[in-house]
Amino acid sequence: MSNLSNQAFGIDFFTGTKDELMSSISQDIHRPYSYIVTPNIDHVVQLQSNPDMRESYQRAGKRICDSRILMPILKSLGVAVPEVITGSDLTLSILRKANDERLSVVLIGSSENDVGKLRRMYPHIQLAHYNPPMGFINDPLETQKCVDFVMQNPSEFILYAVGAPRQEKLARQIDSSKRTGVGLCIGASILFAVGTVKRAPRWMQKAKLEWLHRMCSEPKRLAKRYVHDALSILPIYLKERSSRRT
Predict the structure, then answer these.
(1) What molecular function terms (GO) are annotated for this protein (predicted)?
(2) Is residue 1's pLDDT more than 50?
């Protein structure tokens, strides 16, 4: 249920625990299609200037706090999010559930090499995989191929691994009246799940330093983004705090 205690930056946050989320997902996979987004600092920044991203967020079924940096910001605004649920951790839980229960998963994105690892690690998942070309989201025909693949392959889960804001835009184009299941916008989570990219040690995660580990691991891709986000989030936060006091 939506209320003032779980809203910030135009996002209506999920305010349950991970166990509660997984319980809800277990029911939702049998209901009309819905999808989950994973707001972090970068998403908050994008949402300020990207109306397309905002629409994707508004139409999402759940919006979970993915960031240990975002979490204290939300708490300072009085948002009642009990714990961080990272997309990477949620992806692992979903993969384990799908494997244990022999469920079907559609995966959009990821290399054949990583998908091969995934199949070996989770042999009981019924996996359907499609990897669209670079720039697909700007090509209506290529985007439709992704939509058609999702619609033509019934599954309990749909994992969108093509990066923000592409995956969110794709997720919202699926017709909920014509299929069931839960979609999850997972970014690079498959890379972590199969070990292609190593996650930060647990102590770094607890110290809210996972961003530093990721930036050092992929400096060319992430350094510029992280600097931009760091410079952008302060005025966004101050504006949000001011608006809540008036």
Answers:
(1) hexosyltransferase activity
(2) no
Q: Are 48 and 58 in contact (CB under 8 A)?
A: no
Would you say the C-alpha torsion 188, 189, 191, 195 has a positive or negative sign?
A: positive
- Whether 165 has a pLDDT exceeding 50, the answer reads yes
How do the domains of the chain map onto residue ranges?
A: 4-193, 202-238
The answer for residues whose C-beta is within 8 angstroms of residue 20's C-beta and 6 or more apart is: none
Residue indicated by tokens 């809540």: 244
- pTM exceeds 0.70 for this model: yes
Average pLDDT, the chain: 93
- For position 246, what pLDDT does the model report? 65
Residue for token pair 């923000």: 164
3-state secondary structure 63-118: ECCCCCCHHHHHHHCCCCCCCCCCHHHHHHHHHHHHHHCCCEEEEECCCHHHHHHH
Distance CA 36, CA 176 (A): 13
Query: Predicted confidence band at 199 (pLDDT cuts at 50, 70, 90)?
Result: confident
The DSSP-derived string for the chain is ---GGGEETTEE---S-HHHHHHHHHHHTTSB-EEEE---HHHHHHHHH-HHHHHHHHH-SEE----TTHHHHHHHTT----S---HHHHHHHHHHHHHHTT-EEEEES--HHHHHHHHHHSTTSEEEEE-PPTTGGG-HHHHHHHHHHHHHS--SEEEE-S-TTHHHHHHTTS-TTS-B-EEEE-TTHHHHHTTSSPPPPHHHHHTT-HHHHHHHHSHHHHHHHHHHHHHHHHHHHHHHHHHHH-
